[in-house]
């Protein structure tokens, strides 16, 4: 028998040996069973200790045991309750124990918790590019607001004035709130936002040149929010519905034609309505997750499918439908390494604004990604395959396939709990229905694609999850 | 060098991680002197693993809920990573609140189940963690003249992989939509999570190796 099979058998042993709960109507007894091992107790009362901030009713809800319930010494609900408390993220430790009750066979259930700080760092935004000298920001969350398990998150990003003519410094704020995590029932969340920034559109020069002087800026202000409600469908399935509304104000530049050279020019598609506009949408997201771990998975699958529709019925002046499917498969290898396959497929129909389209920086790991929806760079994709992908920044159809190899480096060490080194190589494509149908064009021209890669460390720490990647630096190498 | 979102945090983290990672080398399995005997065609070992329990665990043994100890032993040739033989012992300890005594039940790989009583926590711990003349392999599986070593792993309150995966999913339950990757989340997200080192395969692990020995001719 393989050692892993033996281990699985051994881990199952306790549950196999576990006593069945008494049948309904049968009086629980304190008497030992014939093997002297199956001890049962009736819970007389429950005491919660150590919770200076977290409300007692929140803890009792997670434990899901009540006075009058019968528990056995090896009751699976007890271990599950302890892990649920730990998984909330509010406690450094949680312990369940019993002491004798008033009558023989009864017990007082003691729940002892050790609270921890619950402010976590979601992201630090800090960067520089050829177009923007510096941008920076923070995103933090308090996960146990007022001891009620509410999450309150806030973030901002700010930048220097981009070197693109007419561009303005970026500034964005986000405020988010979510209800306490639940295994059943509905989970409510809401977000509010404000952003002011510029998007860059090429007016001169070759597509593969990132010179900011070749671009013009659309200055946009966005303000709005999202209200969401989610529910757990099964152990591995989660469904989320969201409603979104934004007020958008966009100022177009004076120069609205692109110089194609040789005396030719064409209008620039700014992909956002000039002046004030509204965007309203409804979205549905299904999350199927059977990974062994959400941060550093060793096996399993993760599929997220979302559908968003913006229509006049939602008070929207933009009408579009956007569908995205992202999937990951993880395969454990013999030496503890992991091979991962990540796929993304997205399509959009209608007149979505640029910030809702598929952006090259989000697909190509070698380019700077957006922060709070704001792009800070004019850098095009490198076009390693010679398909003219540098012309494509925001588009309606996108796909990406990424192969990743991860090597665990360490486990269980202080503040830095776990760490993996990883290397990834992939290909992405970004196109639109017009290019796809272009007559006489090659496959590369119809579906412009490029290689992408990443190399770095993924760290799982007490204050959040961080990825150290050299992809952006690789993208700047003069190859 | 280019700096992009998260880079600074990651670099700070990396720098600190470098100092954190150093003890990792010091945590190679400890070599522990192990008694090795041969009797009735079997290789028997004697080894104490009482240090799997810390002082606070003694109090937890009185909780009235079952504590579990899983000990796994494998024999390796020094020149091969594949085990020649492996075995285990799983022990449950429960304190009877009303009779005020410990009950200890041991399951061994051969299917043998043994139930004992103990009047003190240390006695119960000994029953769970002391391997005394513990059979680990048939001598038929060991070649005379070849050098072997034992690898021992003990886990306090191991958690099933299925439950562990459930818990980690609870940790990461998304409450906001992520569109095309991490960089485009205009509204931010709640997906960053706490990691609690107590949510692991077990509450505590002990990994040891024995001294190596050359199997004598028979």
Strand-helix topology:
The complex is a heterodimer of chains A (479) and B (218).
Chain A (H helix, E strand, L loop, with lengths): L2 H15 L22 E10 L6 H8 L6 E3 L3 H13 L2 E10 L5 E10 L3 E9 L7 E11 L4 E10 L11 E8 L7 E17 L12 E18 L4 E15 L5 E5 L2 E4 L7 E15 L10 E11 L9 E13 L5 E13 L7 E2 H4 L30 E2 L1 E17 L2 E16 L1 H4 L6 H4 L2 E13 L2 E6 L1 H6 L3
Parallel strand pairs in A: 1-4
Antiparallel strand pairs in A: 1-2, 3-4, 5-6, 6-7, 7-8, 8-9, 9-10, 10-11, 11-14, 12-13, 14-15, 15-16, 16-17, 17-20, 18-19, 20-21, 21-22, 22-23
Chain B lengths: L6 H20 L3 E2 L3 E5 L2 E7 L6 H7 L5 E11 L5 E14 L4 E8 L4 E6 L2 H9 E9 L8 E10 L4 H12 L31 E6 L3 E2 L4
Parallel strand pairs in B: 1-10
Antiparallel strand pairs in B: 2-3, 3-8, 4-5, 4-9, 5-6, 6-7, 9-10, 9-11
Describe the structure.
- The complex is a heterodimer of chains A (about 475) and B (about 220).
- Chain A is mainly β.
- Helices cover about 10% and strands about 50% of the residues of chain A.
- Chain A has helices at about 5-15, 55-65, 75-90, 360-365, 435, 445, 470-475; strands at about 40-50, 70, 90-100, 105-115, 120-125, 135-145, 150-160, 170-180, 185-200, 215-230, 235-250, 255-260, 265, 275-290, 300-310, 320-330, 340-350, 360, 395, 395-415, 415-430, 450-460, 465-470.
- Chain A starts with a helix and ends with a helix.
- The model of chain A is unreliable at about 1-35 (pLDDT under 50).
- Chain B has a domain at about 30-160 and about 205-215: Sandwich (Immunoglobulin-like), CATH 2.60.40.
- In chain B, strands 1, 4, 5, 6, 7, 9, 10 and 11 form an 8-stranded mixed beta sheet that branches. A 3-stranded antiparallel beta sheet of chain B has the order 2-3-8.
- In chain B, strand 4 and strand 5 (about 85-95) form a beta hairpin.
- The chains are: A mainly beta (about 475), B alpha+beta (about 220).
